[in-house]
Amino acid sequence: MSKRKQSSKSKTRAIGRDSIPWRYCILTLCCGLILVVGFFLAARQHFSSIDFGIKNSRLRKQIENLEADKRRLQLAREIALSPAEIKKAAQKIGFREMTASNIEVYRPTPSSAEKPKTIEEKPKQAFVSKPEEIKKEDKKPEKEFVSEKKTQEDKEKKDKVKTQIVKTQIARK
User: Fold this and answer.
1) Does 55 score more than 70 pLDDT?
2) How far is CA 92 from CA 33, 54, 86, in A?
């Protein structure tokens, strides 16, 4: 094998070729920049997902609190509409419980077309044993008419109170 002599010129060329061309440097910098930007975008998405998770847990707690309030208000409404509570409220207003002893007979008041019958308009009985019975019968319609006025006024007052109770119950709903 024969040895070749290398010229000194080739050595200088080999040393000059070891340097990296500019386009490879620019390409490497661009790839590195893309890699760094990707890391920043991934970090941003990571932290925003953590933020959404925290907000989501707050909203869940708020929903639980609102549902608990809703259940509490529905229970209060059911209690307020129970017959016992309505009875208590009616007693505070002035209503009383219906029993056989406090039932009043309703007799409609005569309208303007119908006049109340007076003593003269009543037909006379053919046989009267005592004159006291005539006097009692004559006075009886007047008392009934006065009591009818009072009962009518009482009923109107009660109707007003009932409408007020209904309005308050509707307003609560």
Assistant:
1) yes
2) 82, 51, 10
Task: Give the per-residue pLDDT at 142.
Answer: 46
CA distances in angstroms from 160 to 85, 95, 157, 163, 166, listed in the order given: 20, 12, 5, 5, 10
Dihedral of alpha carbons 89, 92, 95, 97, sign: positive
Would you mind telling me the total number of residues written for the chain in this entry? 173
The rounded distance, in Å, linking the Cα atoms of 53 and 47 is 10
Instruction: Copy the structure tokens of residue 1.
Output: 């094998």
Measured at the alpha carbon of residue 80, what is the angle toward residues 75 and 83, in degrees to the nearest 5?
Answer: 115
Q: Is 152 exposed, middle or buried (0-12, 13-18, 19+ CB in 10 A)?
A: middle
- What is the pTM assigned to this prediction? 0.38
pLDDT in tens, 4-24: 666 555 555 555 555 788 999
The neighbour count for residue 80, using CB atoms within 10 Å, is 13
- Residue ranges covered by each domain of the chain: 28-80, 131-173
Task: Give every CB contact of residue 118 below 8 A, 6+ residues apart in sequence.
Answer: 141
Residue 122 per-residue DSSP state: S
